[in-house]
Specification:
By secondary structure, this protein is an alpha/beta fold. It contains 9 helices and 12 strands.
């Protein structure tokens, strides 16, 4: 396992936000983190990135506790695309992507040929080479998200963590962005709200409720009417009518029946 947790807990103000999570992320897979607001998805991503230390348990990178690794070494290996990343500075696209090289450079060191090559490759992988000189403030929401992914790729990581990257994007850009993540063939953990997008683009799903894992497995195993009723408190019909036979979720009006069932159609 490239990235994993063992009974990880994180608390603040006496409240458990992440509660005893054990997670294994296999190399080359896309894992979707699901759950309602406040379920602990973003906090778990920060624990996986090493930007937050667990109150208990371990986060492991190739079997080594992140607490034993230098922050710079972790940043060279694990890249994060935050949910909200804004800047008031008048930067061009290549400047933003170049920020991904910080873990590879010493303070005040000039840009190297390796840095320039990494930035160029990252822009090419997200198909933004022609926009390298564009001002950040002229970009659409979908274009900005691509730039942030390019910045993460410039770190040359092996693991990519994305916190609700499709928020505030229209349907076209949501599909485009997650298709890009899928084509990268990189070990990725993505926090998502949309169950159908998760089924389409993720190999495995991990569902959180009140900070704890309540289900984990393939989309077909995880996305059931009973689980959706229990976690999201809504009625749903789930069929295998999504692209390639993946689960397709259709929500219905009305609260689920007591006991977690989806209720009559």
């Amino acid at each position: 396992m490239s990235l994993s947790t063992r009974d990880v807990t994180w608390s603040i103000g006496g409240r458990r936000i992440v509660d005893g999570v054990t997670l294994d992320v296999s190399p080359g897979t896309v894992v979707g983190l699901l759950g309602p607001n406040g379920s602990g998805k973003s906090s778990l991503l920060r624990l996986l990135a090493g930007t937050r230390a667990p109150s208990d348990g371990q986060v492991l990178l190739d079997g080594v506790d992140l607490a034993r690794l230098r922050r710079r070494d972790v940043a060279r290996r694990v890249a994060v695309v935050e949910q909200h990343a804004q800047t008031e500075l008048d930067l061009v696209v290549s400047d933003v992507v170049r920020l991904g090289r910080i873990p590879h450079r010493s303070t005040w060191s000039p840009e190297s040929d390796a840095d320039r090559a990494a930035v160029a490759e990252a822009l090419e992988r997200v198909e933004l080479t022609s926009m390298a000189g564009r001002s950040w403030h002229t970009l659409s929401g979908g274009e900005r998200q691509r730039v942030h992914i390019a910045r993460a790729l410039a770190q040359q990581p092996q693991e990519l963590l994305l916190d609700e990257p499709t928020n505030h994007l229209d349907v076209h850009h949501q599909l485009d962005l997650l298709g890009l993540v899928r084509r990268l063939r990189m070990t990725s953990v993505v926090a998502l709200h949309d169950l159908n997008l998760a089924a389409m683009f993720c190999d495995r799903l991990v569902v959180l409720k009140d900070g704890a894992v309540v289900a984990a497995g393939t989309p077909s195993d995880v996305l059931t009417p009973t689980l959706i009723a229990d976690v999201y408190r809504v009625r749903a019909v789930v069929t295998a009518e999504g692209p390639g036979g993946v689960p397709s979720v259709r929500f219905e009006p009305g609260a689920p029946r007591r006991g977690g069932g989806p209720g009559p159609s």
